[in-house]
Amino acid sequence: MTNCILIGAPVDEGQRRPGCLMGPAAYRVAGLGALLETLGHTVEDRGDVTPASSGGQTHPNAAVHHLPEVIGWTNALREAATGAMRDGMPIFMGGDHSLALGTLAGVAEHAAAKNRPLFVIWLDAHSDFHTPETTTSGNLHGTPMAYAAGRPGFAPFPDFPVPIPGENICMFGIRSVDPAEHAALQETEITVNDMRVLDEQGIVAPLKEFLSRVEAENGLLHVSLDVDFLDPAIAPAVGTTVPGGATFREAHLVCEMLHESGLVTSLDLVELNPFLDERGRTAKLMVDLVGSMMGQKVFDRRTRSY
User: Fold this and answer.
1) Domain with 187 in it: what CATH number?
2) Exactly one of 12, 228, 268, 288 is catalytic; which is it?
């Protein structure tokens, strides 16, 4: 069984629609810790991270907003992730996706110290492959994967400790990529399993192929699960909805396969905005998906009324 370390990351500054800061509380209320315990895991809730103080950093791209705050979160979450990786499997409860600037940095630092390669599965509608220089929205939740892959243009952020090779990154469920991101991705070895790929090949084959590589290289596997990976019909509590996402069954299949691989070593839960939810249905679904990732089987599903 796993020692699951819950870490709240109430980050709201990486985008412009308030509400993600309530995400950690929503996961707790939806029973994430209790579910993990029923599955036989130990649970340690370390509370919510407090962002480190930062200076008055600015950026030549005038669109970029809340830069000092996001840098503060990045430094604090990097430290929290590095410490938690030594003690078990951290589950970062967000918070918008800019939190991954810090969680990926901390996990990468730990992997380097262990002399093991880090792999990432990015379950998201978006590639998040902008840099502060290329973003037109100025929303830094659209930059963490570029940061982790070592793209230039991230000053004044701290250098990413050990950039993750493109071949170690798998994007899954992608269906909204800006032209600048698309051009940059074309120059990498990142595997982009967009919804066209998944419609043609199904979920199982592409995921098995990537997981086989993680296992063969004795890698650590970080999973970053964005609410907008899911179809908004089943997960409305997100400010960046894109139609055509993963169905209930597809999402649970992905998570059950991740569990069966035995490879997952850290997890982000991001972009849940409880203010946009319907009686907690998205929070409950995300908790159920974590359950599948941690050993709950399809025939264990509880009947729910909303």
Assistant:
1) 3.40.800.10
2) 228
pLDDT > 70 in the chain, percent = 97
What is the phi-psi region of residue 230: left when phi exceeds 0, alpha when psi lies from -120 to 50, beta otherwise? beta
Catalytic residue chosen out of the listed positions 141, 222, 252, 259: 141
Catalytic: which of 13, 124, 277, 288?
Answer: 124
pLDDT digits (tens, 9 = 90+) for 48-58: 999 977 788 99
Q: Is 288 a catalytic residue?
A: no
Q: Is residue 303 part of a domain?
A: no
Looking at 59, 66, 110, 126, which residue is catalytic? 126
Query: Is 126 a known active-site residue?
Result: yes
Q: Say how far apart CA 144 and CA 129 lie, in whole Å.
A: 7
* Catalytic annotation present for 226: yes
Range of lowest pLDDT (20-24, 53-57, 88-92, 301-305): 301-305
Kindly state whether residue 304 falls inside one of the protein's structural domains: no
- The total of structural domains in the chain comes to 1
Q: Whole domain around residue 144: which residue ranges? A: 3-298
DSSP state for residue 230 in the 8-state scheme: B
306 domain residue, yes or no? no
Does residue 268 have an active-site annotation? Answer: no
Among candidates 36, 46, 48, which has minimal Cα distance to 2?
A: 36
Expressed in angstroms, the distance from the first to the final Cα of the chain is 32
> Is 173 among the domain residues?
yes
Q: Is 300 a catalytic residue?
A: no
Dihedral sign of CA atoms 87, 35, 232, 254 in order: positive
Q: 0.70 exceeded by the pTM? A: yes
pLDDT band at 193 (very low <50, low <70, confident <90, very high): very high
Percentage of the chain surpassing pLDDT 90?
94
pLDDT at residue 288 tops 80: yes
Catalytic residue among 66, 97, 110, 130: 97
Is 96 catalytic? The answer is no
CB of 78 closer than 8 Å to CB of 122:
no
